[in-house]
Amino acid sequence: MIILAFILTFLGFVQFAMAIDGHYQAVYGRCQKPGRRRYLFQAVACLHLLAALWVCTTTWQLSIAIIVWIGLIQLAAVLVAGLLTWRSSWYGALWRFGCLGRLCADQKHDINHTPSV
Amino acid sequence: MKEQLLLTTRVVSAAVGGYALAAVISLWLAYFANLEPRDHRFLVNISFFLIYLLLILAAFGFRSHLKTAFAIAAGNAVLWAGWFAIQGGATA
Amino acid sequence: MKGPFRQSMTWLHTWSSLILIWLLFAVFVTGTLSFYRTEITHWMQPEGHIANKVDTVTAADSAWDRLTLLAPWGKSWSVSLPSERNPKTGVSWVAEGEAEERRRGPRALINASNGEVLALRETAGGNFLYDFHFELYAMPRDVGRTIVGVASMLMLVAIISGVIMHRKIFSDFFTFRPRKRTVSWIDGHVIGSVLALPFHIMITFSGLVLLSSTLLFWNSNPGTQNGGRPTTVAPSQLEHINTSTHTRPAAVKPDLAGILADAEQLFGGPVASLNIQHPMTANARIQVTSATRDSLFGGRTGRQLHYDLNGNRQNDASPGDTAVQSMASSLATAVFIVLKVTHEARFADVITRMLFFIAGILGSAMVATGAVLWVVKRTRKQAGSVGYELVSMLNLTAIAGLMVAIGSYFWANRLLPADMESRDLWEIRVFFLTWLLTLLHAYLARKQHGWFIQLSLAATLFICIPILDGLTSPVGLWAGLVAHDWPRIGFDLIALITGFGLLMSAFWVRQHTLKRIKNGEGGNHHNNSRAPIATRGSTV
C-alpha cells in the first residue's frame, strides 16, 4: 500500500511541475505556457496527494499516516526534481502517457508530437 | 565604525533583549490561559520559541538600529514591571 | 534593516546560519544517525551477531530461565524481546538490596537460543552519536545543551528567514541547474531545504522545545533531576554467571507462551517487553508492553496489560490508558507530546524511520551546501581574506572531516581489542582525534586537493565497512544475511551507499578543480592580488 501511496505522490508532483513555466517548456518547447490549464494541473496534483494520504490512513492511524505522508511527499519531490534535471525525456514520457498529457496536450505545439495525419 | 556599533546594538538587543521579551510575553500568555502547572509549563515552552523567533525576525525588519533596540528595551521594561507587579516577583 | 524586508531577511539568513554552521552540520548528521542508534549499537557489538532472532516465546522463556539464575531474589525483572531493530534479547533486574537505577538499555543481553549471557564488548555505540547531537561531549550537560540550543535557535531563524527571502519558492521548486558555478550550489541548497521543509521546521522547533528545561531555566519543573545512566554490565562481571546454578527453590514459572499469545491477540501486534514485579513469589505480577505504537499520543510506551503467575489477565486499568487521558488533557500538552514523539521518532516503524533518515540527510545536505555556497559566492572578491579562509578551512573539516571522523569511529570499534580497558572511551577519543587531525590537515594543506583527500579518505573508510564487518565479526556477512540480521546488514548497506556518495563527491571535486586550474591558466589573471600564489588544487 505504501508503494501505491508513493506512486500517487510521485505522479502528483509530476503534475505540479507541469504547472511551472520552465518545466512545461521543457516538454512542449519554448514560448509555451500552461496558461489557465495550470490550475487544472495543480488541482489534479492536489487530488493525487490527498489520495495518497487516504491510502496511508488505511495502513496507519491518522496521526502517524500524516507523518508518513509528509515523508513520502518530501522523497517524491526530490525524485521528481532529479528526474526533471537529468532525465527530462523520461519525465516527458511519463507526463504524456501516465498523467494528463494525453488529455491536455496542445498537440500542435508539442515538439515531440508527430502529426498523425 | 559607528554603523558597526549600532548594528551590534541591534544584534545584542535582538538576541538578549528578545529572549527576555519573549520570556515575559509567554509568561503573560500562560497567565491568561490559566492552566494546570504542567500544561502551563508546556504552553510557556512552546510559545516562547515561536515568540522569540518572531521578535528576532521583526527586530531585523525595522530601519533604525537604535529605534529597534529602544523598542525592545521599552517592551521589556513595561512587561516585566507589570509582571512583577502581579506576581510579587515569583514566576509561577 | 536599511532596505526592503526581504533584503534584511537575506542578511539575517546569511549570518544566523553562518555563525555556528559547522556545529549545526555535526548536530544534524549525528542526529540523523541517531534515528538508527539501536541498529548502530547492534553493529558495534559483533559478539552479539551470533544471537539469531528467535520467536518471542523462546526469547521470553530463555530470559526467564536466565533471570532465575541472575537474580532469584530480585525485586523486579525486565525482559526486552527481540524486535526488527534488535534481534537480541535483553534482561534487566533489580536484585534484593539494590536501588532501582534509571538505565538506558538492558543490563545484560542474552543469546535466546541457548540462554547464555553474551559477552559483548564495551562500546560507546549509537548512544555516543545520540548524546553528542544534543549535549556534545566532554563538558557539563547544561553547557553542551545550551550551545546546541543556541545553534538550534539560529537554525530556526535561518530556516524561516530563508523561506521569507526566497522569492520564487514555488516556481523554483524543482529547479536544479548543474554544471554552473554559484547557481548550482544555490539550487542544491534550495532543493535540500525546500523539499524537506516540513521536516526541517518540525525537527528544529521540536528540538528546541525538548531542550526547554535547559534553555528556559526560569520555567523548570521543580524536582526533576537527571539520573545516572549505567550501561550494560561489563562482560568480566558476568563471567561467573553462565556457570552459576544458584537459584531459589520452589519457583513457579508462568505459562509465558499463553500470556504472550493472549497479549498479542489483544494488542493486534507483537510484544516489546515484559516487566515482572516480585518475581519468584506467589504475588508476582507480569506487565506486558506492546511494540505497536499506533498513535502519536500513546505516551512513552505502547499499551500495557497485566497478568498474574497463572496467566490470568488483571482487569485494573493499565496505567498507560489513564496516562493517555491525562496527557492529552490540554492542547498545550498534546502539542508537546506530538513535538516530542515526532522528534524522537520512537513510534516509527521500518518505513517511517527510513523516511525520517532520508529527510535528515536532506537537512544535512542543506547545511553543507549552505556552507559551501557562502564560500563559492565570495571566492572572487574575498579569496585570501581572513574570514574567507577561516570559513573555507572550517567547511572542509566540519563537512568532509566529520565524515572521516565518523568512519574512524566505526573502524575503531572493530579494531580496538574487545577486552581493552575503557574501550568505549577510546572509541570516542579516536573520533575526536581524527576530527582534530582533519582540522590540522585543513589548516595546513587545504589548498593541495584538501577536499579530494578528505572525501576520498572518508569514502574508503565507509566503502570498506562491510568488509571490515565480515572480517571482524564472529558471524560472516553471508551468514548474517541468511540469518536475516537486518540491522547489521542494513548498516553495512547504508555505509556502502554513503561511501559511494562520498567517492562520487571526491571525484567531482577533483574534476572540478582540474577544470578550474585549466581555465585559470588560460591567461585569465583577474586573481585577487591578496590570493595566495599556490592555488593549485583549491576550489574552495
Which overall shape of chain B is indicated by the principal axes computed on the Cα atoms? elongated
Spatial gap, N to C terminus of chain B: 44 Å
Oligomer: heterotrimer
Q: Rg of chain C to the nearest angstrom? A: 26 Å
User: Strand content of the residues of chain C, in percent?
Assistant: 5-15%
Query: What is the residue-mean pLDDT of chain B, rounded to a whole number?
Result: 90
Structural class of chain C: alpha+beta
The main sheet of chain C comes to:
7 strands, antiparallel
Low-confidence segments of chain C, given as residue ranges, are 522-539
Shape of chain C: globular
Question: Residue ranges of chain B: pLDDT <50 for 5 or more in a row?
Answer: none
Instruction: Count the DSSP helices of chain C.
Output: 20
What would you note in describing this structure?
The complex is a heterotrimer of chains A (about 120), B (about 90) and C (about 550). Chain A is mostly helical. Chain A has one domain (about 1-110). Chain A contains six helices and no strands. Chain A has helices at about 1-20, 20-30, 35-60, 60-85, 90-100, 100-105. In chain A, helix 1 crosses helix 4. Chain A starts with a helix and ends in a 13-residue tail after the last helix. Residues about 115 of chain A have low confidence and may be disordered. Chain B has about 90 residues and is mainly α. Helices cover about 85% and strands about 0% of the residues of chain B. Chain B contains three helices and no strands. Chain B has helices at about 1-35, 35-60, 65-85. In chain B, helix 1 (about 1-35) packs antiparallel against helix 2 and helix 1 (about 1-35) runs parallel beside helix 3 (about 65-85). The longest helix of chain B is centred in the N-terminal third of the chain and has 32 residues, at about 1-35. Chain B is elongated and about 50 Å long. Chain C is an alpha+beta fold. Chain C is about 55% helix and about 5% strand. Chain C has 20 helices and seven strands. Chain C has helices spanning about 5-20, 20-35, 35-45, 55-70, 125-135, 140-165, 180-195, 195-210, 210-215, 235-240, 255-265, 320-325, 330-345, 350-380, 385-415, 425-445, 450-465, 465-470, 475-480, 485-520, and strands at about 75-80, 90-95, 110, 115, 270-275, 285-290, 305-310. A seven-stranded antiparallel β-sheet of chain C has the order 4-3-2-1-5-6-7, with helices on both faces. In chain C, a hairpin with an 8-residue loop joins strand 1 (about 75-80) and strand 2 (about 90-95). In chain C, helix 3 runs antiparallel to helix 5 (about 125-135) and helix 15 runs parallel beside helix 18. At the A-C interface, helix 1, helix 2 and helix 4 of A face helix 14 of C.
